[in-house]
Design a protein that fits this description.
Blueprint lengths: L10 H9 L7 H11 L11 H13 L4 E5 L5 H8 L6 E6 L2 H13 L6 E5 L2 H6 L7 E6 L6 H8 L3 E10 L16 H14 L4 E6 L5 E6 L1
Parallel strand pairs: 1-2, 1-4, 2-3, 4-5
Antiparallel strand pairs: 5-7, 6-7
Helix pairs in contact: 2-5, 3-4
Length: 221
């Protein structure tokens, strides 16, 4: 099928879109982005402001009270998710880095959201497997090591309530998932396998949004 979408997404266009959303990037988010950028190449792990707006909107759309994030980094996405929670809502963040999450903690405090966010420094699978098994999670966001994606998804799916959302970032891997040259590294192979498994997962209805670096959006049946 021919691609008839000719829109080129530039930095300027993203800035325009963010400025015209309901949650333009405020000083807390802007300062967090700049502090993260100073870390160097790892800053590429941070989501963009446009994706952050979408996370906030998802939470508000479904009236999320309980959310989980796997892969927190410096806390930009966490802040956006927390802002979308209903009054009294909580976000559990799973990460293995005290250094990076400490940056996020400062931003959450500035934003007045620190009381909504609980960080667990441990391998995410250990944290997830200790959670109650009943379906009580409203929103889950996975943005961590790609080789662990399916394991995280498989632990979270039974714990997400019907009508709740499971989200996974980087599922198009800079567009390489559609390459037919067979040149796979470990991350690309893991993402392709994850995408195949989600597409066949009868627990959810899912779409892949070809924006950002690819975002899987799935509704728990």
């Amino acid at each position: 099928m021919a691609d008839v979408r000719a829109l080129t997404v530039t930095g300027e266009l993203v800035d325009y879109a963010v400025a015209h959303g309901s949650w333009p990037e405020d000083p807390v988010l802007r300062d967090l982005r700049e502090e993260t950028a100073a870390l160097g190449a790892v800053a590429s792990m941070q989501i963009g402001a446009d994706q952050g707006q979408l996370l906030t909107l998802f939470g508000r759309m479904i009236g999320a009270h309980r959310a989980i994030e796997v892969g927190t980094f410096t806390g930009y996405s966490s802040l956006c998710i927390a802002r979308g929670l209903a009054p009294g809502g909580t976000l559990l963040c799973c990460d293995v880095s005290e250094e990076w999450t400490a940056i996020g903690r400062k931003a959450w405090q500035r934003a007045g959201l620190a009381d909504r966010i609980d960080v667990r420094i441990a391998p995410a699978l250990e944290t997830l497997r200790l959670l109650p098994t009943e379906p009580a999670i409203d929103l889950a966001f996975i943005d961590a090591d790609k080789g662990g994606y399916w394991d995280y998804w498989d632990e979270l799916a039974p714990r997400v309530r019907p009508g709740g959302l499971l989200l996974a970032d980087n599922v198009l891997w800079s567009g390489r998932v559609a390459d037919g040259d067979g040149d796979e590294d470990g991350n690309l192979r893991a993402i392709r396998e994850f995408n195949d498994r989600v597409a066949a997962d009868e627990r959810v209805d899912a779409v892949v949004l070809p924006a950002f670096d690819g975002l899987t959006i799935a509704r728990r049946r």
